[in-house]
Amino acid sequence: MKFPFPKRGGRRGPGPLALLYDEARLPNDIRRGLNWILAGNTFGTMHGIICGGGTTALVGLAAALGAGDTVFGLMVIIPQIAAILQLPFSMLVNHTRRRKFYLLTYGLLSRMVWLFMGFLPLVSRGPGDQAPIWLMAILLALSSAGNSLITVVWFPWFSDMAPIRIRGRWLSLRDTILSVASLLFGFAVAYLLDVLPQSSKYIVVFLVGGLFGCLDMLSFSFSPEVWASEPKKINLVGTVREVLENKRFMKMVIMWTAWCFTANMSGAYLTPYAMNVMGLSFMQITIFGTVAASLATVLAVPRWGAALDQFGARNVMLVGCIGASLTPLFYLLSTPGNIWPTFLHNAVGALFWSAANLACNGMQLAYSPDDTRPTYIAVYTCIAAIIGTALGTASGSWMLEVCRTRGWFEGYFDRYKMLVLVSVVLRFGFTILLVPRMDDDGKGTVKDMLRSFRPKRRMII
Predict the structure, then answer these.
(1) In angstroms, rounded to a whole number, what is the distance separating the alpha carbons of residues 106 and 99?
(2) Smallest Cα–Cα separation from 83: which of 357, 363, 387?
(3) Which of 323, 327, 342, 373 has CB atoms 3.0–4.6 Å from 349's, for a disulfide?
(4) Smallest Cα–Cα separation from 328: which of 414, 412, 425?
(5) pLDDT tens, position by position, 395-430
(6) Where are the alpha helices (DSSP H) in 327-414?
(7) Is the Cα dihedral 129, 135, 141, 144 positive or negative?
(8) Tens digits of per-residue pLDDT, 348-393?
(9) Degrees (nearest 5) of the Cα angle 228, 145, 38?
(10) Which one is predicted more confidently, 86 or 138?
(11) Rounded Cα distance, 162 and 13, in Å
(12) Is there a contact between 340 and 331 (Cβ–Cβ < 8 Å)?
């Protein structure tokens, strides 16, 4: 479809996505499909800013309902436990090959759940009433079950449409766009949370979040269903055994599971800490958290995408994980009202965790065969979510609770700072031990990759 935009200053050249599509010689229907997937991912990101685990909106709602550290941990744990559903879902999707149907039914229903989340404070009958918290847990569980199906559908769908030689750059362009959307939408959400009255702000915000989640699912209705391989009957037990025996894939799974465990020991509690202990407002957390991370991602992710295609995922993973493992140390300098730890953690951290996320996505696609990829992704997600994220978050909650009941680590070096220090040491250690053992698909070394980032000097004649 052509749009009759007036020409100004000559004909405009093709954009970066069009250049990638031209390089891969993609037909028009695949180009449109990838663009609609990008639109869905953008709406999904805006949904996640409000409805994702540990967001300021969800943390604020939980605090308004009287939640403590254990409930904050449950907000992260429940979605991860639901990831076990990805195994049967992957078999169902592979057997029926009805990706679009599932996103437009179960996926859409899981996003509509969030339309009701903001009404929970109206259910409360007074201080100490646990009914709203239990209802929040039930709604989270229902939404998380649907998200498990969404995960095993959209990522293999994308990989079947995008050739491997452009995936790294496409994902980096996507992440750049998502970062800009996060930046702009994060401002709007923080403004609403700060200015709307307590009685209505969560109703309005979660209605908006649920709407964008629905638009995410509806975007996939315009994308063609593409399968890179012919239908193949898969035995669940046999395929899971194949995944577990794939040493190349399992090295990545073990490394990323250890990374998720140590990251979530403290990561799940940084936003509640910034709000409830450091005393930062919704707008401060957005500006010095979401916005800072988005700007850093916009600057960094195009270079990481090019490096992923040129130097391989392992090199990108090593640098990204080393940098990201150290940035929570800024929170050791935190004091009430001080915004700098939050800003530095998010701005500097995003420069590196954007690399780690890109490398992980690239490894999932490169190390899994086309015909059984949904099951590979499901096994990866189950292990990383349950052992990594859920168990890591639960361990952090347990450590915080033990320190609180026994009166350990009070004053300046409080129990949260203790938790940050422990998680940083473990995360850095796992990175150094596990990443170098993974297979290297790229050409060159880490030093070569870092050298390519240096600005080239122009010769003056």
Answers:
(1) 11
(2) 387
(3) 327
(4) 425
(5) 998 999 899 889 899 888 999 999 999 999 999 999
(6) 340-366, 373-383, 391-406
(7) negative
(8) 999 998 899 888 888 887 888 877 777 888 788 888 888 988 889 8
(9) 45
(10) 138
(11) 22
(12) no
